[in-house]
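> run fold J domain-containing protein
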Amino acid sequence: MAGSKFQYDESGGTFFYFLLSFLALVVIPSTYYGWPKRQSKDDNKRDRKQCHCEQCAQKSSYLSNREPFLKVKQRIIKLFLILGWMALFACAYKVAHLTNDYINWDPFEILQIDPGSSTAEIKKAYRRLSLVYHPDKETGDERKFLKIAKAYAALTDEEARKNWETYGNPDGPGAMSFGIALPSWIVEKENSFLVLGLYALVFMIALPVAVGIWWYRSVKYGGDQVLLDTTQLYYYFIHKTPHMPLKRVLMVLASSLEFERNHNSEVIERPSDNEEVPHLMKLLPNLGEKNKERPLCFTYSIKARALLHAHLSRMQLPPHSLDIDKLYVVGKCPYLLQEFVQCVSQLTMLALAGRIARTPNLDTLEHTMKLSALVVQALWDSKNSLLQLPHVSEDMLRHFTTRKRNVRNIRQLASMKSDERRSMLRNLSDEQYEDVMNVISKMPLLEIDVRSEVLDDEDAGIITAGAIVTVTVSLCRQNMSVLFDKEFIEEKSCIDNEEETEDKENLAIGEAGDKMQTNETALKKPKVWEKQTKGKKKGSKSAKTKKTPKTAAIKKMAQNQSQQPKETTEANNQVIAVKKSKTKESDGESNDGSERGSDDESDVENSERTVSKATEEVSEHEEEEDNWDDFQKSVTKKKEPLEGKSKMSHSVHCPYFPDDKQEYWWIYLSDKKRHALISAPYLMTNLVDKEEVELKFTAPQKPGQYTYSVIVRSDSYVDFDISKTIKLDVKEAPKQTESHPQWDISEDEEEVNKDEDSAVEDSDLVNSTDESDDELDD
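> ok
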């Protein structure tokens, strides 16, 4: 059996094929994703619409100076990509001009004779070439002579000729050779030390060190890139003080271990901090530096707390020392506060489950969410929210609250008339006023719609005690520019507008059906055995949008009359014709009415039965379609979490925040009477136009009326929170009777058993009568 032989590429041909494919897989995607892009015209238009206040200019310069070598990096990236494409084209040119190393072995060609030559001619050619290439001759060539001898043996020896004809080789089947797309100099003895050293450096030193560093760094962080030690610190203080005021939350936030040098190597400790930090502490009242709790009393915690106080007060700090540290601390705060909110909600859920004794107060959660917006906008909670606008100072706020006008938030300012707004902001120049309007026009205007139901239940509209209630919150975001030059604002959600259009359609269809109903009342009376449709449809639809079988049938006949079965249309025409004929007869012919009334009434009843069957089929078909649509929506909702969650929504105007901030929204359910959290907060990071979120919680165990509040809070803007009240009517849970499945007997089985028993009794009676007759005969 032939073996196998591995050989390296001595000519280097196959190696170029490997190199070409490798370069193509690296260079093409790198060029597509990594080539530096120029600023387009659309970006220039966006820059014109941006704010040009002093703080925004400082922020843009800070962002540009944060990467001083950005242009150099872009040039280096371009250079490497160009070199990669040059190498790719060079490899492609080399591969296109490579010669095939495989040569078909032909003995006739080696002996320089024709394939049909005789044995004498073969011997003559061999002798002639031997005299030339024999090693003993002056013009001899050992390799060439071996080929000639091998070709002569293949043509003269019977066994060698047979092997050549069968295997293509006079020596018989050879070993299977595998070519390796690497040059042969890699396995040469002279280069073995270098090759082994390179392998050891890459696979024994560099790779284990890289994996170890990655593991050591990743094991210290949680899912949101927050240190696990910081999360444990939050749990400890939340459990210690369930009710935290705003400054207490700020104090715990400043003690995060992300600001400590031993846990974070990015933190810079300067010698100038010994002089600048104490001087800053003297300028800040109510800093709480005398607190003895650990780690609240540590140096790094006091410094971070002082920097946050200075940021909220919008104080000017030394630009080359404390100001840089302040921007670093402020940039970390949104992620840390998100982790703080998650810790509070988890401890609250554990307390509701009875696993821990202390329940965190709802104020702690709301203060944490409020602090996030305050940090982004650099405001204290006691300041006016209008200070979020550019060029607006505290001295100008007295013009906003007068006898004629009482403007206390940005939404009221956007709802004013343009001339009144300009007169109120008369101290601003035209450019400054344009900046204010550009910022207001991009701020969010939310409209929410809430519906509650019990999923996976036969009747989703009825909420029973202990059931899992799903509250679906639909958010619709618009720019605040829709409020410009509008005196009266109707707060209607996007879903309500859709419901209004459905109401108009149903009313228009109902007008067509009312004519039939008025005529039917004279002939048809409500029967006792007919079902009366009561109650509302499943979900949060109003009574106007409820689809009864009759309205559904009328709608179907009005829109798709050509697609309906012929029987229903004929039955409808028959009903109308009979009604018209009967009205004429009642006016003119009163003598024959008694005789024809019974026939007409029977015809009407038959036609009405056909119409009722058709309407029932249409309603069942529509219910199946609704159920299928609900099922598809549930499937898509289940697939959305698997696809990943986007973190791009809308940019926030925050000139005092060091990075580009996107709009995020916290959505949760609370009970204001008990001042308790009902559902875990959900952080929505992808609200661009419309989004939905489901909040689930367990209904109370006692039946009754309960009032909850759905609250939507912004983590970026102050005084942009929205709340909506929902009322739940919790019914008593039905009692479930436990019965063994083998003991359950249906009504049909009971009737069958009764029939069998009666049949047995009848047979016994027959047998007894037969026996008595036999006795009498005897």
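Residues 4-96 form one domain.
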